[in-house]
Design brief:
4-stranded antiparallel β-sheet; Arc Repressor Mutant, subunit A; alpha+beta; 9 helices; 45% helix; Jelly Rolls
């Protein structure tokens, strides 16, 4: 895998001159993680500005009682470590672990900060991505504060469908979720039993049929109504 060709495909680097991509490549190393391997822990100094090349990473925190809250996942072509570009002395706020065999491109922080100063296109792209992450975090706070767990589950499911099946519309749809009920619970701030009851409730209301990770959406409109209530 040639790093420059890979970086060209990363949305945040789209449109950068070949010379700039070559400079980034020269300051990039490839890190390989096994499934379940920890990449970083909360409280550590940032390692690098990173891009996922393959696999997937999970970002999460665990409280003293052992309850886990998932803040997001990074999939191929997605970047993380954005806050270290503007605040290099701030420690990492979350834990990060791989969910599969994963490859990461680690780009030297000093190098990419220097390039940001002379490439407005890159600086604007990073600012847009930061704004998107901030908006997602506000949405998570809103969900946890103002909606009950079943509404959050419906909202999560509808959002996952929108991201992964954008052309699905309101037709009946069979999906295979990539997460267990425990993993979904950690994303919406609850426990597995509540997620199980939520799916059972939606089955009784004719919104879906569920069998393990296989879910058939029967009434997308009702799912959205539940998510918004």
């Amino acid at each position: 895998m040639h790093t420059t060709d890979t970086l060209k495909d990363i949305p945040i680097f789209k449109g950068l001159p070949e010379e700039t991509l070559n400079q980034l490549e020269a300051r990039t190393s490839i890190k390989r993680l096994e499934d379940g391997e920890v990449y970083m822990n909360a409280g550590q100094p940032p390692k690098a500005f990173c891009v996922v090349l393959s696999g997937q990473l999970k970002f999460y925190r665990v409280n003293k009682a052992g309850k886990e809250q998932v803040f997001g996942y990074a999939k191929p072509h997605e970047a993380f470590g954005l806050s270290s570009l503007t605040d290099p002395y701030r420690t990492v706020p979350v834990n990060c672990i791989s969910r599969a065999s994963t490859e990461i491109a680690e780009i030297d922080l000093a190098a990419i900060r220097e390039i940001m100063h002379r490439e407005p296109k890159l600086a604007v792209a990073i600012l847009k991505e930061q704004t998107k992450r901030f908006s997602n975090m506000l949405d998570l706070v809103d969900q946890l504060s103002l909606k009950d767990a079943h509404n959050r589950l419906a909202n999560w499911l509808d959002g996952w469908i929108a991201d992964n099946h954008p052309d699905a519309g309101d037709a009946e749809l069979l999906v295979v979720l990539p997460y267990t009920q425990s993993e979904i619970a950690a994303q919406i701030g609850t426990v597995r039993e509540v997620v199980s009851r939520g799916f059972s409730r939606m089955e009784k209301e004719g919104i879906l049929r569920a069998s393990g990770k296989r879910v058939t959406i029967l009434n997308r409109k009702r799912l959205r109504q539940m998510a918004e209530s």
